[in-house]
Amino acid sequence: MKRIAFAVTGSFCTFSKIPPVLEALAREYEVTPIFSRVTATLDTRFGAAADFREKVAAICGREPLTELTEVEPIGPRRLFEAVVVAPCTGSALSALASGSAATAVTLACKAQLRNGGPVLLAVSSNDALSGNAKNLGELLARRGYFFVPFRQDDPEGKPTSLVADFSLIPAALAAALDGRQLQPLLLGAQ
Fold it and tell me: Is residue 182 part of a domain?
């Protein structure tokens, strides 16, 4: 069974989409969750951090990694065949584009790229077509990064917002493990 990391950053409005995806992935892969500090600690109107953590741990059969020291072995030990970041916020896009490895999620990505393995990003950002457009473009052009196909989620109300189609994560992961970008990358309106 292939081993993957599933990293979660703080786009809280998409958290309800994660458990079904994890359940599907856990049937095919050994899944290790990784949480950003924000994901691991903040209670929001979308739910309590502890409840989300408990649900993810139950699906994956292991507690999420949250500290730099917990993810550092990913590189030297070649722990995973792929790292999935879902959701991947604008902050995460920015950090990855600049090469920052200051969080558990970004260090996991850097370690995976060091080993030549794929990093799959499921973008969820209100400014992906404005302030983060340059970061999105930078990562689209870099080797090792793959994307879950995405669309504008509300072109009229939030014209700069993009969100990945989380139901496509399993197919996008299979393609990334095969060295391919799942197409089409840009999805039409829902």
Answer: no
